[in-house]
């Protein structure tokens, strides 16, 4: 391929990447407090709409076995960790933090994983405790049908609302470490090495993946709220997600400092031209 054509393609790629990063910054850096309020309003309003109007039943993404639900939401925590863990590692390294800081930053992900596991497990157990087997009162959910009964679901807290909202808010909180990347990887002679350029590119890619995942989770949240669960199931799931986010990122981390809050230092250094 001619050199001029390669440079033209590279320049076009840089333009697209720059625009995408700019849009991602606007979306991910939006106030998490305001976003939490928006999520609560959206869940309530769309739940009321879905309960009041007949929605198309043949809509592909509303089917439980659609690909996004089967391989996206049901594996939601895996995908969240898939983009967050490398991003946290790379941005910690970019800020020249010590290994103990990296360990502390990754501890936030571990704490979130523990909360996710505890809450989702408790949701399942709570539904079983509040449900019953019609026709065979002593049967468990697993043996109800075998005993000739019909399982009447209990209070089924929306795991979709919980994981989609909690993951999205967590992504936004962790994304603040990207604020300084343009300053850290400036145009100074010390920052134009091949290694630093590769690191900066990798961080941008993971930042854009976080943005894409956030958009996907928001789309899936709309579908879930419109089509599944009773309104009170969805509201409880939403409140638990908001509670986990607020408790960790706005009480635990800033007050106790261990794990530390996400990196959000205000670096405004001059960029020296080469």
Describe this structure in words.
With 274 residues, this protein is mostly helical. The chain has one domain (3-256). 67% of the residues lie in helices and 2% in strands. The chain contains 9 helices and 2 strands. It has helices at residues 3-28, 32-52, 67-71, 76-94, 99-130, 159-174, 181-184, 194-227, 231-256, and strands at residues 132-134, 150-152. It has a two-stranded antiparallel ribbon with strand order 1-2. Helix 2 runs antiparallel to helix 6, helix 4 packs parallel to helix 6 and helix 5 (99-130) packs antiparallel against helix 6. The two termini are 29 Å apart. Mean pLDDT is 84; it is low at 269-274.
Query: What is the residue-averaged pLDDT?
Result: 84
Biggest sheet statistics: 2 strands, antiparallel
Helix content: 55-70%
Which stretches are low in confidence, meaning pLDDT under 50 for 5 or more residues running? 269-274
* Number of H- or I-type helical stretches: 9
Q: Name the helix and strand elements from N-terminus to C-terminus, one letter apiece.
A: HHHHHEEHHHH
Rg over C-alpha atoms, rounded to the nearest angstrom: 23 Å
**Content of β-strand:** under 5%
Give the strand tally: 2
Form type = globular
List keywords for this structure.
single chain, 274 residues, mainly alpha, two-stranded antiparallel sheet, 9 helices, globular, hydrolase, transmembrane helix, FIT, coenzyme A diphosphatase activity, endoplasmic reticulum
